[in-house]
Amino acid sequence: MSADMGFRTAPAKQMGLRHLAGALSYSMGGLRRLMAETAFRHELLGAVAAMGGLALAGAGAGALVGQFVLLCGLFAFEAVNTAIELLVDRVSPEFSAFAQQAKDLGSFSVLAMIVANTAWAGLALWRALAG
Ligand SMILES: Nc1ncnc2c1ncn2[C@@H]1O[C@H](COP(=O)(O)OP(=O)(O)OP(=O)(O)O)[C@@H](O)[C@H]1O
């Protein structure tokens, strides 16, 4: 059986700090998988531009933290959307209304976060430059 097919045995359950270290390591695996997505790499570039632009414009700590939190939300939604796409492609490789709706809903969740990030960045930049 191949590891690529997802047939590996699940690791044994850990407790305490080992559980925390395991969870961190699984999350880093998710991040590595997310880096393979073009959309996520574009969002990372946008994140650097937004945080860098706000810092250069002299935005306050509140504006920077707000942007950071919204960017974390965007990355989280992108990760969940990618997971949905993987599951849908596995469950319904053929055309189906279920697959289309599931993917389009995931896609909309990412779009909503992009709009929220853009609105925050625009307002914070305007306030920093005007004030
Ligand atoms: N199995 C399917 N059945 C029906 N519609 C699908 C199916 N797979 C994808 N679609 C639809 O086709 C469109 C494009 O989907 P696709 O997954 O290719 O999006 P994408 O953003 O290009 O994906 P990727 O993240 O791979 O670049 C979407 O509207 C999606 O809902």
From TrEMBL:
Gene3D superfamilies registered for this protein in UniProt: 1.10.287.3610
Membrane-related topology note: Multi-pass membrane protein
UniProt keyword Transcription regulation, yes or no: no
TM region(s), chain numbering: 44-62, 108-129
A molecular function (GO) term: kinase activity
Keywords: ATP-binding, Cell membrane, Kinase, Lipid biosynthesis, Lipid metabolism, Membrane, Nucleotide-binding, Phospholipid biosynthesis, Phospholipid metabolism, Transferase, Transmembrane, Transmembrane helix
Subcellular location: Cell membrane
One Pfam short name: DAGK_prokar
Location (main, coarse): membrane
InterPro entries: DAGK, DAGK_sf
Protein family according to the UniProt entry: Belongs to the bacterial diacylglycerol kinase family.
Protein name: Diacylglycerol kinase (ATP)
